[in-house]
Amino acid sequence: MALQAVGAGAFAHTDAAMTLPAQPATNAAPAPSAHPWWRGAVLYQVYPRSYADSNGDGVGDLPGITARLEHIAALGVDGLWISPFFPSPMRDFGYDVSDYRGVDPRFGTLADFDALVARAHALGLKVVIDQVWSHTAAEHPWFVESRSSRDNPKADWYVWADAKPDGSPPNNWQSWMGGPAWRWEPRRKQYHLHNFLPQMPDLNFHCPAVQDAVLDVGRFWLDRGVDGFRLDTANLYAHDPLLRDNPPLPPGERGDSPVLMQRHQFNADQPESLAFMQRLRRLLDAYPDRFSVGELGGPEPVRAMQAYTEGTRHLHTAYSFAFLGPRPDAAAVMERLAPWADHSGWPAWAFSNHDAVRVASRWGAGAGGSFALSAGAPSDAAQAALPPSTWMALLMALRGTLFVYQGEELGLPQSRLAFEQLQDPYGIANWPLSEGRDGCRTPMPWVAEAPHAGFSPAPPWLPADPAHAPLAVDRQAADPGSMLNTTRALIALRRRHPALRLGTLTALVADGPLLVLRREWQGEAVLCAFNLGAQALPTPAPLAAAWAGARLLWAQFATSADAGLAGGAAVFLGLDA
User: Fold this and answer.
1) Residues noted as catalytic
2) pTM for the full model?
């Protein structure tokens, strides 16, 4: 789905609107040790270009992240996921890698990375890094050799195919960045596959040597101490070797661009991708406490997530664009959660990331969209503005591993940029239908009164949003009722209660905007109730019946069973199971 940005004002949160039991600013309670650290964990995504600039060149870097690790630790999260920092021509800002074993000079050095890992581990944080294995940059030495002839040692490391007799591409596959997914290479007199930009050729995972080389890359970073991998576009690793045409979608399911007008039957979700995940899992299992999470796009996100996480031989967990599109109502939330009740896999969930309109804008006023590998579908949820604290509370109630995107803890709204300020190739290609992904990638605001909100002393690669300055970390840290301190309290709540982190999930109410969940684990139960609409509603019966004898763990816009649930309300009640 194409990005659709919406405007949003600064987030306001008052003590009168909340019941906030006293919580430590950091998480003092350890995660349950009898289960893998990643199960139910909360991970914080860092987009390096926009997090913190340590050397004044206007681009965030690894030393900048290291200098701000205390902020991440103070959230109480279990670790951080760092988006790509490898050498790259930056056509897609790091997701086009030219050297899998290095650090781009813009971001620092391998020594800087090692220092970051050491400091993170000293603070009790796990470090998960992006791995972009479905494709490389055209400048990668593997591709330089592969494109040189049809008989070199790496000739079959990428997906090459002859033209049709009329010179047209081998099939009808479309690129997510626009146009056909095939580019002509005159040296070989063949086309190569690119699911994204033409200068981002797809690796051939049907070639055993490619799989071996990729696993060697993984081993390199595991040996440097990383705790896991986030796998970009994990279900695009393998392709149909017969290169069959993708069938068209029915008219009612088609999107606005050619890539969203076909069913990706033959260029995604091939069985060879799952077979490779088994090889990767064996590698990860050879290192203690390592972890993998796959990014999976497609029109059936839960089905894909379950296939890639089933049992103990595939990925540890996976997330999709299931919650990165339009605002859901209670039934839509349960459509994503219910299938996991009796499944052996473990889900992961994110409400924001570097490819999606920030949740404070996208769901705050109900606007849709993200850079998703499917056309998506609208929701019938009431579309009045709700505060970002509602969505953070909902996220912390879910069963699964959770991801919080930088700035989400501050309630940052989506930024609006002029066309001449855009950097994202997707946004530039699809303007004005889509404003692209730059609006969720603007610099992190650290100091409200500092130039560029404390991100850098120099003009940043994307402009610092003036609307973000009042929401800067220094301002919110000093305000007990701020979104930042609300986020800290909610993460601490999740870690203190194993029922929230590890427990079963049952929906007691999922009707319109009303959602009541029961999380239960080893003698403890937590009721989590939400009004995802704007209108005040009576307290749902299961919540009202439990309230008098329960412990109020955390609440927003709700003070008692008799008072009902205001729009955006969230309530966590502790019970004996």
Assistant:
1) 232, 295
2) 0.92
